[in-house]
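Task card 7
Instruction: Convert sequence to structure tokens.
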Amino acid sequence: MYDLVVVGGGPSGAICARRAALRGLNVAVVDKATFPRRKLCGGAVSPRVREILDFDIHSALEREIGVAVVYSPHGQRIVGVLPGVRGLMVRRERFDHLLLEKAREAGAEVFEGVRVVGVEQLRSGIRVLGEGDSFNARFVVGADGVNSVVARAVGLRRGWKPDYVGLCIAADIKLPPDIVESVTMDPETGQPAIELYLGAVKGGYGWLFPKRDEVSIGVGAKMSSKADLRNLWHRFTTDLEQTKGLKLNLSGRSAFRVPLGPPDGRLTRRRCIMVGDAAGLVSPVTGEGIYYALMSGIIAADVVAEAVKRRNSLHVAEYDCRIADEVIGELRVLRWLSNLIYRSKDNMERACSLAAEDPVARRLAMEFLIGLRPARAVRWELVKRLARHYPLRSLRILVS
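Output:
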């Protein structure tokens, strides 16, 4: 019997397995894929990721980015720069594979190509049922994404509310490195930039992210917005081709869902903990979830290690308390900001105008976007700034 079986070998599962193995637990990771596996994702990662990992990820980085360009619905261009701060761009195939190898290096057993179909509670443990195999454990961590089998099997979630899940269409498009540089170059700073197009879709945004020899292009919105995403994707990519002077091969496009935090309700059940996307720990402003995936994986590993030490399965409830303190509070602030910005195109335009005029507000908005500091601290500074200098315009954003 394993101390811990982790279902899912993505970032949250891999880092959980590594942390638990380093703490002396007998750990298995089970994933339906064989790594490295294709994972469509914008690939923008908060610089905070480096602070919480105990190993170097330089080999998995595609690019470091110091500039973000945000376009308002009417085309106003806002350039955000934080001196000395670099966002990270990764290709998920390489990044996820590195994390899983680090888990294996720490002593976790990795079972690839095994699809998990259910979970059974045992008298003194829990069994993970895979196609052709099963795994008995004292505890299970569900790291199996937005469509989590584990969450359904243990009764933690049947589905997502429309306002708490986003739908995206995206493609990673191969381009020569010099073309990537030219089409994403910001003329003001002379640096490649990530580009966000607010209002490109109803209730969401479009993006163009540079990597080394490819760009990630996509659109995404909350399911509750009922946006006609397929037509909006076509319009967005057509506009990009015209403005960037490109002919894009979009044959690799795909649709996928992204949970949008904070989660509603508990994330634990008898001997079971949910992490990462499976727990809904994703920013509702940007859709970025890798930082929260890693944080939740680390916390889950520490809670399980303590539960094994105490021989007390009830200790898993401590995970809910720690996630509430360290992650969910931040996601609630981001939910507040998301509801304000994406409420209407007029609100997007007002927010962009304020950021364009006020360099302090623009800096704070950038800190929100890349997660440089805890969202609660940034919100308080931003609200004070806007209330003091732009009371009437701020009120329109709040009540519109």
